[in-house]
C-alpha cells in the first residue's frame, strides 16, 4: 500500500513512512492510494467480530507491511478492557426513535481521541521496526483540548519517543488544562501558548516544513512526527468505530444491513467526520453526514456556499475543542472534491495560506451539498441543547456533543442518526451544570462532585485525582518561541 501527498501524487511513500513522517515534505497530507470497498459478504462476516478483531482487519489493509498478527496484538493492547472499563471500547445508547449516541469517551482521558491515540504509539514503533529506523521520535502536537492529554497518555514512557504538546493558554477547559499540566511521564513536555488553536497548529506545521529544523533534528538522531490528525496514523483508526457502530446497530436490530442512516459529528479539525466519510466510501450505507459547528462556523458556511473563508472573528466558546477556523483535515476531502487533482488542491491551499480563503468550483460545491448537511449553534444554544437532551431523554452530554445534538434538531428529513459523543460531560462540569439549570460551586472540582451527585454517579477517578497532583507545566510562551522550544528537546 502506497500513500501520496494531497499536493503531489508523484510523491509516494509506504504506510509506515507516512506514519513516521506525519506530514508530507510539501506540506500536504498523506492519503492511501486506495480504500477497501467491502462487499455485502465481507460486511456480513464482520458482524461477529469484536472491536479488536475488526480494527486489526481494517488496519491490515492499510498497513500490510506490518502484518495482521502484529496489528491484532497492538489493538489488543490499545483497546484492553481495563483501559475502557468494558469489553469493547465504545458503546451505543439509543435515545428515542431516531437518535443513537456513539459513546467514544470511555478511554483513559475521557475523550474520543483515545480511540486513535492509544493505538498510534504502537503504529509508530511498529513502523520504525519495519523500516529499520532507530532514531528517537519527537512527537509534536497542537491541541484545542483533548488531543493533548490523549497524546501524553498514549506515549507515556514509550521507549524512543519524546512528546511536545502545545495548547492555547486561555482556550481549553480547566479540567483539560490540568490533565495536561499535571502529566507525570518523563518523556513529555507541555507548553501553553499565548494565542488560539489556529496559532499553535500553524506554528507546528511551519516547524515541520522547515528543512533546517529537520536537518538539526537528524544531526541529533531525532526525527519529527505528529500526533495530530494530520498524521494518517491518527485518521485511519477512527474509521473503525464508525464501521463497528454500524455493525452493532445491525446486530441490535436498529437497521437492516443495507438501510441508510446519517452520521452527526461535532467538528473542529475535520478528522473525526472525515473518518466517517471514508467509512461511507468503504461500504457503510451512510446517507448524509451532519457537520456540527459552534459559533466558529467556518465549516457551516463552507458547506452551504462552497467558500472557505477564515477572515472572521475567532470566538472562545463553551465547546473549546471546536474553537478552530483552519480545519486541517478538510484538505483531504478537498482533494477528492477537486477530482483528485493534486495541482488544484495545492493551489487552493496556497490561496488559503495567502488570502485566508478559497472557493470550490460550482460542481464540486454542489456534490458536497448532497453529502453533507452543516449547522451551527452559539453558546446559549449549546446550553439549551444540554438541558433539552437531559429533560427529553435523561441523558447527559458534554458541550461538544450538545452542539451535534442541536445540529441533528436543525437537520431536515430525519432518519436514524448516529451522533458521535466525543467527551465525558465530567470534563466540562461547569458548562454542563449551567445547561442543566444548576448554580455553580466555587471551583471545578466541587462542580465535578455536584454533577456526579445530580446524575447519581461517581465522578471519574481520572479527574478526581487531578486535585492533588502538582502542576508541572505552568509557564505561558509566545507562539514565536515554539521553534526554539522544540529545538531544546532534540
Total strand segments: 16
**Uncertain stretches:** none
Number of H- or I-type helical stretches: 23
Radius of gyration from CA coordinates = 21 Å
Shape descriptor reads globular
Helix-strand category: alpha/beta
Specify the CATH architecture of one domain: 3-Layer(aba) Sandwich
CATH class placement of one domain? Alpha Beta
Q: Fraction of residues in helices?
A: 40-55%
Largest sheet geometry: 6 strands, mixed
| CATH level-3 fold name of one domain | Rossmann fold
Strand content: 15-25%
Spatial order of strands in the largest sheet: 4-5-15-10-11-14
Q: What is the CA-CA span between the terminal residues?
A: 32 Å
Mean pLDDT: 97
Structure description:
The protein has 490 residues and is of the alpha/beta class. The chain has a domain at 87-111 and 233-430: Rossmann fold, CATH 3.40.50.1100. Helix content is 46%, strand content 17%. The protein is built from 23 helices and 16 strands. The chain has helices at residues 15-21, 40-46, 51-62, 68-78, 81-84, 114-117, 120-131, 146-154, 174-181, 197-209, 211-219, 232-251, 271-281, 298-305, 330-337, 342-355, 362-371, 379-393, 399-410, 429-435, 444-455, 461-464, 482-487; strands at 2-5, 8-14, 30-32, 91-95, 99-103, 136-142, 161-168, 188-193, 222-226, 261-266, 286-293, 307-309, 357-359, 372-376, 417-421, 476-477. The strands form 4 sheets. It has a 6-stranded mixed β-sheet with strand order 4-5-15-10-11-14, sandwiched between helices. Strands 9-6-7-8-16 form a 5-stranded parallel β-sheet, sandwiched between helices. A 3-stranded antiparallel β-sheet has the order 2-1-3. It is globular, with a radius of gyration of 21 Å. The protein starts with a strand and ends with a helix.
Amino acid at each position: 500500500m502506497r500513500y501520496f501527498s494531497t499536493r503531489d501524487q508523484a510523491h509516494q511513500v509506504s504506510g509506515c513512512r507516512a506514519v513516521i513522517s506525519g506530514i508530507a515534505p510539501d506540506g500536504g497530507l498523506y492519503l492511501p492510494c486506495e480504500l477497501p470497498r467491502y462487499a455485502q459478504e465481507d460486511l456480513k462476516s464482520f458482524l461477529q467480530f469484536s472491536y479488536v478483531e475488526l480494527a486489526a482487519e481494517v488496519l491490515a489493509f492499510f498497513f500490510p507491511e506490518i502484518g495482521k498478527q502484529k496489528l491484532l496484538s497492538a489493538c489488543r493492547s490499545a483497546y484492553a478492557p481495563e483501559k475502557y472499563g468494558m469489553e469493547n471500547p465504545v458503546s451505543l445508547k439509543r435515545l428515542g426513535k431516531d437518535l443513537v449516541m456513539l459513546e467514544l469517551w470511555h478511554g483513559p482521558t475521557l475523550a474520543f481521541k483515545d480511540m486513535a491515540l492509544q493505538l498510534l504509539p504502537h503504529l509508530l514503533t511498529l513502523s520504525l521496526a519495519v523500516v529499520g529506523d532507530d532514531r528517537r521520535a519527537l512527537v509534536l502536537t497542537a491541541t484545542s483540548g483533548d488531543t493533548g492529554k490523549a497524546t501524553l497518555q498514549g506515549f507515556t514512557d514509550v521507549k524512543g519517543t519524546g512528546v511536545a504538546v502545545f495548547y492555547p493558554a486561555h482556550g481549553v477547559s480547566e479540567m483539560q488544562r490540568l490533565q495536561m499540566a499535571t502529566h507525570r511521564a518523563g518523556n513529555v513536555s507541555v507548553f501553553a501558548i499565548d494565542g488560539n488553536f489556529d496559532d499553535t497548529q500553524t506554528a507546528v506545521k511551519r516547524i515541520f516544513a522547515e528543512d533546517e529544523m529537520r536537518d538539526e533534528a537528524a544531526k541529533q538522531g531525532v526525527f519529527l512526527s505528529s500526533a495530530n490528525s494530520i498524521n494518517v496514523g491518527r485518521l485511519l483508526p477512527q474509521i473503525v468505530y464508525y464501521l463497528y457502530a454500524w455493525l452493532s446497530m445491525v446486530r441490535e436490530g436498529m437497521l437492516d444491513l443495507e438501510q441508510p442512516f446519517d452520521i452527526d459529528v461535532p467538528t473542529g479539525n475535520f478528522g473525526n467526520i472525515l473518518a466517517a466519510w471514508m467509512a461511507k466510501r468503504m461500504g457503510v450505507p451512510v446517507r448524509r453526514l451532519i457537520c456540527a459547528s459552534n459559533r466558529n462556523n467556518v465549516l457551516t458556511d463552507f458547506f452551504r456556499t462552497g467558500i472557505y473563508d477564515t477572515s472572521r472573528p475567532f470566538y472562545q466558546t463553551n465547546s473549546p475543542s471546536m474553537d478552530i477556523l483552519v480545519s486541517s483535515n478538510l484538505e483531504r476531502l478537498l482533494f477528492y472534491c477537486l477530482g483528485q487533482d493534486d495541482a488544484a488542491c495545492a493551489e487552493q491551499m496556497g490561496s488559503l495560506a495567502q488570502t485566508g480563503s478559497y472557493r470550490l468550483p460550482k460542481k464540486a460545491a454542489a456534490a458536497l451539498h448532497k453529502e453533507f448537511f452543516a449547522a451551527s449553534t452559539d453558546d446559549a444554544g449549546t446550553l439549551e441543547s444540554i438541558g433539552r437532551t437531559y429533560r427529553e431523554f435523561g441523558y447527559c452530554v458534554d458541550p461538544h456533543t450538545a452542539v451535534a445534538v442541536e445540529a441533528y434538531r436543525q437537520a431536515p428529513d430525519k432518519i436514524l442518526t448516529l451522533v458521535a459523543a466525543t467527551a465525558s460531560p465530567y470534563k466540562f462540569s461547569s458548562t454542563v451544570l449551567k445547561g442543566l439549570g444548576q448554580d455553580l460551586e466555587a471551583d471545578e472540582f466541587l462542580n465535578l462532585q455536584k454533577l456526579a451527585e445530580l446524575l447519581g454517579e461517581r465522578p471519574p477517578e481520572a479527574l478526581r485525582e487531578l486535585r492533588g497532583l502538582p502542576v508541572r507545566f505552568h509557564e505561558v510562551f509566545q507562539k514565536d518561541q515554539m521553534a526554539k522550544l522544540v529545538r531544546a528537546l532534540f
